[in-house]
């Protein structure tokens, strides 16, 4: 049986350097990150006396491109990995992946393997949704693999002999559910006896994108106030770590109801509200965090960011979190009562790919020569 495996290919504008990657999504497993392994194919007459370097670049844009005036630049590029690919260092020991072995066998002696390792605390790929009238590159964290010809790793690259191919650093949902979120909040009133109690519970802690979130609400009104309205919402929290005040929250799904209201003094109410956070309902809202986007691919709301420890936050990262907030409205004099529950929103781990067999065939996806202008 012949299996097809996908290969991503991009050629430099001068046609002399070709980059092959087996995948463009690299998974952060909290303790380790998938290695970035690929092949660089060099033209025969390009090997004489030239050096080829490879780098993994994390590009963090924290301001709009259209606001860059008078020398301002709202973008930082971090070189997370960098090494000389050709001529290869003499002492380099390299365990080739199955994909690299197959490509070297197919492409011949001018195919040079490389492997890069990302640091554990490197930020995940996140894009902040631009407004309808915004132009230029969106804010967020993007990655790309860069291969170029030069004299040193710090050499100023020439566009014609440079290949840039976008990749993503992503996380998948853990295999086990965490503790079921539950909270009880109470409100008493200065000039009247009794208190209002709100108990909120989610059916689980971990949800996959597109899944319905069930919010179980229990209200016990032992005060002499009336509950006139109930509102539940899913809030996305975005923390741009670079800025001290770069934290904000946005409601990405909400429902308001007066069913069962008003809740009179001495009465109770049990209710379940269903919420589905989805990008389709937030298409034109500036600042919503999305999963890092590759060209020609749809995306979704950003997944929750999982950290090995709370203090392991890269200064160039964007940390995303979600919570459900339930509000009881008591009128102008009574005020509000609010309960909040954290949750995790992520993609499930995909099934493991089939092993490559000797009779596997490569399904090559080509990219146009739209290298990022480094001049």
Give a nutshell description of this structure.
By secondary structure, this protein is mainly beta.
Fraction of residues in β-strands: over 45%
Low-confidence stretches: 354-360, 369-375
Beta strand count: 21
- The total count of helices amounts to 1
Structural class by sheet pairing and helices: mainly beta
Helix content: under 10%
**Alpha-carbon distance between the two ends:** 48 Å
How many domains, as an integer?
2
Q: Could you give the order of the helices and strands?
A: EEEEEEHEEEEEEEEEEEEEEE
CATH topology of the largest domain: Immunoglobulin-like
Instruction: Please outline the major beta sheet.
Output: 7 strands, mixed
What is the residue-averaged pLDDT?
Answer: 85
CATH class of the largest domain: Mainly Beta
Form type: elongated
As an assembly, this protein is: single chain
Evaluate the radius of gyration.
26 Å
CATH architecture of the largest domain: Sandwich
Key phrases:
Immunoglobulin-like; five-stranded mixed β-sheet; mainly beta; 375 residues
Write the layout of secondary structure elements.
Layout: E1 4-11, E2 17-21, E3 25-27, E4 36-42, E5 51-61, E6 75-86, H1 98-107, E7 111-116, E8 126-128, E9 140-150, E10 162-170, E11 182-189, E12 192-202, E13 206-208, E14 213-221, E15 229-240, E16 247-257, E17 268-275, E18 289-291, E19 318-329, E20 336-346, E21 361-367
Parallel strand pairs: 1-21, 3-10, 13-20
Antiparallel strand pairs: 1-2, 2-4, 4-7, 5-6, 5-9, 8-9, 8-18, 9-10, 11-12, 12-14, 14-17, 15-16, 15-19, 19-20
